[in-house]
Design a protein that fits this description.
Blueprint (H helix, E strand, L loop, with lengths): L10 H17 L5 H29 L27 H16 L1 H11 L10 H16 L5 H15 L2 H24 L9
Helix pairs in contact: 1-3, 1-5, 3-5, 4-5, 5-6, 5-7, 6-7
Length: 197
Amino acid sequence: MSKKQKVRVTRRQAREWALQMLCLADLNPGEDLDSMIETFWNEMLSMKREEEEERALDAARNPLSVIRWEEAETPRAKSSESIDHVCPPPLRVFAETRVRGVVNDLAAIDKAIEQYAEHWAVYRMGTVERNVLRLAYFELRDCPDVPAPVVLNEAIDLAKYFSNTNAGRFVNGILDKMRLDLRKEEAGKPRPLPKKR
């Protein structure tokens, strides 16, 4: 990656990666979380390299391309690349914090979800829906810096993107009940004084 190129990753993309890691952990119970996370980032780096190689080859084959064959640099030639090439450290921390937070408190999160999901046991939900709800519940409960409407919107979009439109409706119904109860709990707590500048 040249000095002029910057990795453009948003919190949305970080949430997508967090969801993918949660699904991996869910489908591979008993696996070491640290090694699973490391493997996930290495796979993302490998996919990024393959995309860049393909783009470079396409550009070299196209006579109207701005990049000439001699200038087409293949990413495999760069040995110094790291996961930072895929995801900047702050957003990697953002994603991993959510994954670790959900996995470390999975039983309590699942119990809370079952209270809001009438007639639905967590194990009966689809893998995507279950993990979207886990991620969103964690954010609603443990991430006060993220507004509730953002959490709901992101969760609904993730469910629709990785599953289907009906999954978005299902997730919305459950999260809306959660949001109302969690915000009532917040309203009863004294708010911290704003920091002086």
